[in-house]
Amino acid sequence: MDGPSLAEALFCKKAEEVWQDREVRFDVAAAQLQCRRGEEVLDTFEPVEDTKGNNGDGGRLTLTHLRLMWRSTKQARTSISMGLDAISSIAVRPVSSRLKGNADALYIMARQNQQRFEFIFTDLTDRQPGLAAGLQALVAAYEASRPYRELRLRGALLVDKELKLLPREVAYSRVDGVSNLSSETGNLGALYLTNVRMVWHSKMAASFNVSIPYLQIKHVRIADSKFGLALVVETSAASGGYVLGFRVDPKETLEYVHKEMSSLLQAYANCPLFGVEYDVNAGAESQAVKPLEGDADVLEPEGAKADAWAAYYADGASGGGAGCEPVFSAELGLAVEAPRDGASIQQLWSIL
């Protein structure tokens, strides 16, 4: 009695998780720059220079619900796909661009696993609001919409004992008398099914709850348990790989809930809703990203084409940047990598 796997319904093949909003990829195939289901192009800036890795090379920068994409005009293979979840900070700093000269550029710090990357994009257009304000507004909208995409435990889900709906969320069913089987005795509560998620909360303690977006559901099925037949929900590895059981009585109600949930999963797979509400003109109303004061970064001409990843490593790591130049430390009597501005060897040593 297995229900559909969301990823299998999306791709009609072996399960594949959403990567577009979480990963940073370089020089990807054209197919990976195409929008997936539920992803739409929200804004486009052209020309935009990739001043960090391809100084002097203009291209098209695209913003979607899930990521930022840049593709070179000269070489279609040269491209970047940067998930919004990977972005850790945004700033504007002066830079020396081959195409625009001294100008204010968008600095983005991103991370993936244990690696940190730095990107510099110079907007060659005269649009207002500009690229920096647009990206800032998009990242804020992405952060505000995380309940659409992330499993939440013990959240503030209820208002006046009713489910607090997200924007564009529609509640379809509420089933009372549903037990969460995470404890030895089960915990009685209510189950909600909406167009974007399933939610369960305890009757005795509303703060004991779980919100599971359909995006993170890998399988839903009816299976035997020590409590009898139960609705079993298995979540994706990205959300922790949970296996959750819910006792629904009588059997007819259990079968109805399973059937309705399977239908909602299929409907969501056909048209995913990621919840990112972005207004192209939002940047004009939000506080603009102010340029940081200081001397302009002068980017030297490139030598041979380096590894795409290495060109964007933060702090010059593995990229041959000035941050790796050794300096003599009188305190240690050794040649060391120069500390960041505002830090000293003594301060770094005291951390140990």
- Please give the count of helices: 5
Question: Can you list the strand order of the major beta sheet?
Answer: 1-5-4-3-2-8-7-6-19
Shape estimate: elongated
Major sheet attributes: 9 strands, mixed
Distance between the termini: 56 Å
Rg measurement, Å = 25 Å
The chain-level mean pLDDT equals 84
Secondary structure class reads: mainly beta
- What fraction, in percent, of the residue positions are helical? 10-25%
- Beta strands, count: 21
Strand content: 35-45%
Please trace the helix and strand order, writing H or E for each element. HEEEEEEEEHEEEEEEEEEEHHEEEH
Which regions contain 5 or more consecutive residues with pLDDT less than 50? 5-15, 283-306, 317-323
Task: Provide structural commentary.
The chain is mostly beta strands and 352 residues long. Helix content is 14%, strand content 37%. It contains five helices and 21 strands. The strands form four sheets. A nine-stranded mixed beta sheet has the order 1-5-4-3-2-8-7-6-19. Strand 20 and strand 21 form a beta hairpin. The longest helix has 20 residues, at 251-270. The N and C termini lie far apart (56 Å).
Please outline what is shown here.
Helix content is 14%, strand content 37%. It is mainly beta and 352 residues long.
Main attributes of the structure:
nine-stranded mixed beta sheet; mainly beta; 5 helices; 352 residues; eight-stranded antiparallel beta sheet
Mind sketching the topology for me?
Elements: H1 6-11, E1 24-26, E2 41-50, E3 58-64, E4 67-72, E5 79-83, E6 87-97, E7 101-112, E8 115-123, H2 131-144, E9 152-153, E10 158-159, E11 162-163, E12 171-180, E13 187-194, E14 197-202, E15 209-213, E16 217-225, E17 228-235, E18 243-247, H3 251-270, H4 282-285, E19 297-298, E20 326-329, E21 334-337, H5 345-351
Parallel strand pairs: 6-19
Antiparallel strand pairs: 1-5, 2-3, 2-8, 3-4, 4-5, 6-7, 7-8, 9-15, 10-11, 12-13, 12-18, 13-14, 14-15, 16-17, 17-18, 20-21
